[in-house]
Every structure is written in C-alpha cells, then in structure tokens.
Write a structure and sequence with these properties.
Shape: globular
Helix content: 25-40%
Number of strands: 2
Largest sheet: 2 strands, parallel
Number of helices: 2
Radius of gyration: 13 Å
Structural class: alpha+beta
Distance between the termini: 38 Å
Oligomer: single chain
C-alpha cells in the first residue's frame, strides 16, 4: 500500500459477521491515510442483542475514524 493514492476502497459486502467486521476494521485502520471513512451495514448473525455490538464498534472506531456511515436499521435499535 504505497504510492500517492487519494482514495482506498476496502469492500467486504457479503454478510457482515462480527468477526469479519472486526478483522476488516483492523485492516482498514492499518492503511496509511489522512482520513478514514467507513461505510458499515447491519451485523448479520449477531450473537445476542445488536445494541451492545454497535456500541463496541463505536468505541473501537472513535479513536481514529474520521467518518462512519451506518446503513440499515438494525444498528438503530436499542439493546
């Protein structure tokens, strides 16, 4: 991942199991960029209530993400 790229796109759009989302986030975090923008859909096959999982994701993202766009209604439900 070298060069003068303006934009890197990392796509993982087939089912969003929490384990693959965590792995994708760690990979995305390691990409050297001035800004990081994440687009995230619903967590599929979430163990238990989705609310705590989305709060955990937020806590993982806050220290370094510039913008997060959440798509879907699952993340909006309390839990």
């Amino acid at each position: 991942m070298q060069g003068n790229a303006v934009l890197w796109v990392c796509g993982d759009d087939f089912k969003g199991a929490i384990e693959t989302i965590y792995a994708a986030i760690e990979t995305f975090k390691a990409i050297p960029a001035q800004r990081h923008v994440l687009v995230l859909g619903s967590i599929e096959e979430a163990p238990g209530s989705g609310g705590p999982l989305y709060r955990d994701l937020g806590a993982r993202l806050v220290p370094w993400i510039d913008r997060a766009i959440l798509v879907g209604s699952d993340g909006l439900e309390g839990g």
